Amino acid sequence: MPVDQELQKLFRTTEELELAEEAHVNGEIPDWLNGSYIRVGPGKFDLGSNFTMTHWLDGYSILSRFEINSDRIKFSKKFLQSEAFKRALVAKKPVFCEYATKAYPDPQKGFFSKLTSRFLPIELTDNDTLSLFKLANELFASSETNYFRQVDPCSLHSGDRYDTNKYFGLNVASAHPLTDPDTGITYQLGSTLITGCKYHFVKIPSPIGSQTAKDVLKKSKTISTIESSNFGTLSFNHSFGMTSKYLIFIEQPYVMNVTRAISSCIKGNQTFKDWLEWRPESKNRFFIIEKETGRVLKTEFISEKSFFFLHFINCYEENNQLIIDINAYPSIQVLESMYLSKLRNGIVHVEDQPCAVRYVLPLIENIGDIQENFNLVDIKTEATAIRIGNIIQLTGEELAEKGFELPMINYKVMGKKYSYIYATGSVAPGFYQSAIGKIDVRKKETILWKESMAYYPGEPMFVPNPFGTGNEDDGILISCVTDTANQSNDFVLFLDAKNMKELGRAQFKAHIPQALHGIFIEKYSH
Fold first, then answer.
1. DSSP conformation class of 377
2. Is the whole-model pTM more than 0.85?
3. What does the pLDDT read at residue 267?
4. Residue 118: predicted pLDDT
5. What helix, strand, coil percent values describe the chain, rounded to 5?
């Protein structure tokens, strides 16, 4: 597409805003919507005037907070004070490698430290840009490495750094730990490579009384271990699924070549991306784990077609089957489209658009008892599960138009049968571009909020109405919208989740940076 200079607003380096900007809501939002909406994502891409990060995902983490109080909103933003960020400011270049940006020598290290560090296991970045989660009523920012960091939800002050190696024995972990809404138990998925390529599920108990995050982390334990299906590789893992009884892990064909990763520790000058390989011939493998016992079901489930994914949408059980909804891509092209050299020049086309896809897995104990070449799925769906030899081959059902990302549900229905997905489009042309969608997965119907092609909404955050009917869509959607029109202001948008009608918006003079994920914290819960 032709270069639109204002489109660069989406991909520019932002700045901190410690003195909060206050804005009035133009419209009317309900009194019960009272709390803080906090977002995280890449925010600093340029180090001085001579260095720019390679990839959008490599930018240094920025936290944005919107304090919502009746019809007034206060906006502040602050960079996460990671070691990666602080050392990069001094060096004017990154000293830890990121997804597609290599590391440079750290000027704060002496000659001997620089020499020996080349022969020691690589220290991973703690640039936590990808997600936010709560544990024991404390807020954390996370990524896909071994580090996550405490964040003060009021001041956005960066607190203690936590290491999954120390607490879980995991070399890397997913960006999205999940907390069971019924039990308060938190689960995390991670991987190890030093003692062999394996995946592990960790169980973190629900806090009791005044227990802190450190207290419950010390009581965490590994409940299940799965060997990698392919020697010398580990699957890229951003998220996993959960129902009331099961955890679901999908081993995808975007894999870390461990030999290549170890080699890079010695040679240097490589990035995470250099360790990763797209192997579509391997297909996707689905693993089902019992939450209570950690037992992995023996049946092998393999997709007919390979796919790449970042986000599970929801999973639930029905008629002795697992229904698994994910946002799947045909390839990793979306990652290739996110280089800043492309984005800042208006090159935003992505041919391989994502789609919400449903897979249905019959809960089978003994595959030998199952008839071959027969569809085992017995709910109303186009998805199939067919025994072929010693495996169950899966085909998926597309639930909506292609092109959305950052799917959101009402968390009260996580792990349960549900109806609605809320999502937004990317900058690439498509059905959801410049829009927020409400997808009814039962009726396969979509309602869009869409006002201007200059608007680029972020992840829609669903906040349930605490005094409402209890219906799944009784709540408010909050989304931060970048307005790329000339001399325009970004704004926070509020929609009625039932009909996708605008309730109000608050405009800010300060730049609202793009983000990946957010969290809403009620006023008296922190």
1. -
2. yes
3. 67
4. 46
5. 15, 40, 45
In three-state secondary structure terms, 456 is strand
Coil/strand/helix, residue 60: strand
Tokens of 429: 């042309």
Would you state the structure tokens that stand for residue 222, as one six-digit string? 């590994």
Classify residue 27 as left (phi > 0), alpha (psi -120 to 50) or beta.
left
Provide the token pair at 38.
Answer: 């906090």
Q: Tell the residue number behind the tokens 């829009």, with chain if given.
A: 435
Which residue type sits at 361? L
Burial (CB count <10 Å: 0-12, 13-18, 19+), residue 245: middle
Beta bridge partners of 40: 63, 517
Pull the structure tokens for residue 160: 């203690």
pLDDT of res. 29: 96
d(CA 41, CA 290): 33
pLDDT given for residue 428 in this prediction: 86
The C-alpha angle with vertex 107 and arms to 102 and 108, in degrees rounded to 5, equals 115
Distance from the first to the final alpha carbon of the chain: 45
Q: Which residues contact 493 (CB under 8 A, 6 or more apart)?
A: 436, 449, 457, 477, 478, 479, 480, 481, 502, 505
Maximum Cα–Cα distance across the chain: 67
SS3 call for 11: helix
Give, in degrees to the nearest 5, the angle at Cα 293 between 287 and 297. 30
- Across the chain, which has 526 residues, the per-10-residue mean pLDDT values are 62 94 97 97 95 98 96 96 97 95 82 41 87 97 97 98 96 97 96 92 96 97 97 96 98 93 72 94 97 96 98 98 98 96 89 96 92 94 97 97 97 97 92 97 97 96 95 98 92 98 98 97 73
pLDDT of amino acid 184:
96
By CB atoms closer than 10 A (0-12, 13-18, 19+), residue 269 is: exposed
Contact by Cβ (8 Å): 245, 292? yes
